[in-house]
Amino acid sequence: MSRIRSGDTKPELIVRSLLHRMGFRFRLRRKDLPGKPDLVLPKYKTVVFVHGCFWHRHEGCSQASVPKSNCEFWERKFRKNVERDERNRLRLGEAGWKVVVLWECEIQRDPVGVVERLAAELTDQSAFKYDMAPTRLEVLRAAEDQLQYRLGRRGGKAKR
Asked: What pLDDT score does 160 carry?
């Protein structure tokens, strides 16, 4: 498990790239906040967690399977992860932060749609509206090459 990344995962990099292209600015993994959120948007008092379906147990997702060996260990580990996530969400909410959880499978399926939904949530909660917010097509055009490369869909095998 020491080789498992806690940050800079493919889904997280995609979300960061698209959010930045849409004009949102953020901080990464602020250690002073519970759970060290992946993205912190202080202007909007919002934190974003980009959760992997396997580790954080995305309900109903095929990627959230339990390994066949050492089942008790894995079930205990997953239960603790879910409890810790919930505890962090509650603590952040009590501190006045809005918490958004994005799932790995959602980002892989429709990255632009996920980021658009996040952008809509951010701009709706703020008095400031983005007059220059790009449309879905503009975001797709601007980020298409980078997304295809990162998702491994561009000619040949994906780089790891």
From this structure: 43
Phi and psi (nearest 5°) for 41?
-110, 85
Assign domain 10-150 to its CATH architecture: 3-Layer(aba) Sandwich (3.40)
Q: Which residues of the chain have pLDDT under 70?
A: 1-6, 125-160
Token readout for 90 is 């509650």
Domain boundaries, the chain: 10-150
Quick check: 92 and 47 in contact, CB under 8 A?
yes
- Estimate the crossing angle of helix 111-125 against helix 10-21, to 10 degrees: 50
Considering the entire predicted model, what is its pTM?
0.76
Find where tokens 């002073």 sit.
Answer: 32
- Residues found in the chain: 160
Please identify which residue in the block is written with the tokens 């090459």: 145
